[in-house]
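Reopening this ticket.

The earlier resolution said the output was attached, but the attachment link was broken on my side. Pasting everything inline this time so it's all in one place.
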Amino acid sequence: MAALSLGTMMQIGFRLITYRGEIEKLLPQISKAIEETVRLMPQVRELLIKIAPEFFGQAAAKEPKYDVAWVQRSLNALTNAGLVVDNDYGPLTKKAIEDFQTSLGLVVDGWAGAATCAAIDAELAKRRGA
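Inline output:
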């Protein structure tokens, strides 16, 4: 994508201001669509692996496993979250992750992605005195 000139960026900015009302009306629908997309992603991924394992199966094998039990144990140690360590990503685990993200000023999305896992590691290291 080519760099935009200052003039072009200003024009886009003014258009955003002009259409602010329309944008604000759409935001709840956009937010719901994003939430639904995120919710369906694991099912879509599983289906793609079944349909075309030659394309998606190899990528899936190379990806690290999401270790929910580690997240649960870590949050129990760091925040006394009281989670049952069952490797099940349920609503209590999501809430504990959101609370942890909020406490550190991270993006609050309820997922223990790279930034959140790094923050968990850092907090555990502080506790160990490393």
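Reporter confirms the inline version is readable. Confidence is low (pLDDT under 50) at residues 59-64. DSSP finds six helices and no strands in the chain.
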